[in-house]
Write a structure and sequence with these properties.
Elements: H1 2-24, E1 30-32, E2 35-36, E3 39-41, E4 44-46, E5 54-62, H2 65-68, E6 72-79, E7 82-91, E8 97-103, E9 114-121, E10 124-128, E11 141-145, E12 148-151, E13 155-158
């Protein structure tokens, strides 16, 4: 009888260890990072040139598939420690690419020869999987798509030509 009770106790412990992780375990939110690329055209501006007043920005967000699409990208010009935010934003497409038109950089005080365009992608939380017909919420895995920041190559600001 003693052996039977011991065997039942060992089996109960084994079954408890197998069942408990699935029953008690909850899927946690996975933090997902990535990178953002920034390309600016044209890459040289002349101070006081009224013909070129905007720049075209393009790039992409490299991350997992649920964290690439529909992300808001904000832009700012960076001159050393001075950050000048721009009002323009872009939204990434399903493949993570984006394009936007931003104003040309202006000469700052003290005069500089170059600035950098910084793109910052907002943090979002996404849920994927298990979307059943008639259910309003997804109960699958949650992804915490982290905020991303990327800088362009230096943009040259040439002084106005002297006559």
């Amino acid at each position: 009888m003693k052996k039977l009770i011991s065997a039942c106790a060992v089996c109960a412990m084994a079954v408890g260890l197998v069942v408990a992780p699935g029953a008690l375990g909850k899927k946690s939110t996975k933090n997902v990072g990535g990178t953002v690329s920034v390309n600016v055209t044209p890459s040289t501006f002349t101070t006081g040139d009224a013909t070129v007043t905007t720049a075209t920005v393009s790039g992409s967000v490299a991350s997992n598939s649920s964290c690439r699409k529909d992300r808001t990208v904000h832009f700012a010009y960076v001159n050393g420690t001075t950050v000048t935010p721009l009002a323009e934003t872009a939204v990434t497409r399903s493949n993570g690419s984006y394009t936007a038109t931003v104003p040309a950089p202006t000469d700052t005080n003290p005069p500089t020869t170059s600035v950098v365009l910084r793109a910052t992608v907002d943090q979002v939380t996404r849920k994927v999987g298990s979307k059943k017909k008639g259910k309003k919420t997804k109960k699958g895995r949650a992804f915490n798509c982290l905020s991303l920041t990327g800088d362009s190559a230096p943009i040259t600001i040439a002084p106005a030509p002297t006559l």
